[in-house]
Amino acid sequence: MTGYLFPLPPPAALPILGQSTEFPVNRIFCVGRNYAAHAAEMGSEVDREAPFYFLKSAHAVRKSGTILPYPPGTADLHHEIELVVAIGLSAFRIGADDAMSAVWGYGSGLDMTRRDLQARAKDKRHPWDLSKNFEGAAAISALTPAAGFTPCAQSIRLEVNGDLRQEGQVSDMVWTIPELIADLSRYYHLAPGDLIMTGTPSGVGAVGPGDRLAGGVEGLAQVELTIGPAE
Predict the structure, then answer these.
(1) What SS3 state is found at 177?
(2) For the residues of 70-124, what is the DSSP string, one character each?
(3) How far apart are CA 76 and CA 85, in angstroms?
(4) How many whole angstroms separate alpha carbon 31 and alpha carbon 47?
């Protein structure tokens, strides 16, 4: 009998509103610069020829309401509130007109970023992995099935310690959800369990130990996260 050298870690999974089952997470595709105002505040322009992406591993997932120890290797941890799209059907080379058929549901998420490491990577033209893909870098709410939510012009906002930090609308996205799914499916066999974090509005900023983050997309479950002391 074939065995494993050490026990497999438990799968990353997210709760589903109104259900006892959970949504197992496969991959996390993140869209860069999908809100023009955020791109501008970061000193960048939107590439309107095609979207671009970075990935987070499933080990980055944290459920809403948890405490995230302040991550190692950074002195400038930033929040980014986002609409999360959960994929429920396989999709490869799918057209934008059919892309929404692959969507299982939606949630609110926080793309946590080690901004100083990202800035260093940009200066050296290096990948962003250290800044974006770390334990706890993707805090995500309970998911709402697609039948209960239609993305359009809903507000998306984030408060830190009760003060408004980020605010925008889903309709402000440069690349729509069908366009993103169609484009990603040119490069990947999208599969059930994949998540797409669709970008953040302007207003990103630093957080530190003791800060309480709460926000999300109107009509979806809120995501909450507390920043704990560094380990």
Answers:
(1) helix
(2) PPTT-S-EEE-EEEEEEE-S-BSS--TTTGGGGEEEEEEEEE-EEHHHHHHHHHH
(3) 27
(4) 12
Would you put residue 125 in left (φ > 0), alpha (ψ -120 to 50) or beta?
left
Strand 61-63 relative to strand 138-140, pairing:
parallel
Q: Which two tokens stand for residue 78?
A: 């930033």
* CB of 203 closer than 8 Å to CB of 167: yes
Question: Residue 63: which of 130, 10, 6 has the closest Cα?
Answer: 10
Categorise residue 6: left if φ over 0, alpha if ψ from -120 to 50, beta otherwise: beta
Is the distance from CB of 199 to CB of 42 less than 8 angstroms? Answer: no
Give the model confidence (pLDDT) of 85-110 as tens digits: 999 999 999 999 999 999 999 999 99
What are the tokens at 179? Answer: 């366009």
pLDDT tens-digit readout, 27-67: 999 999 999 888 788 887 777 788 999 999 999 999 999 99
Using an 8 Å Cβ cutoff, are 229 and 62 in contact? no
Q: How far apart are CA 34 and CA 31, in angstroms?
A: 6
Place of tokens 């940009």: 122
Instruction: Note the CATH number of domain 13-228.
Output: 3.90.850.10
Region for 60 from its dihedrals, namely left if φ exceeds 0, alpha if ψ lies in -120 to 50, beta otherwise: alpha
Is the distance from CB of 167 to CB of 173 less than 8 angstroms?
no
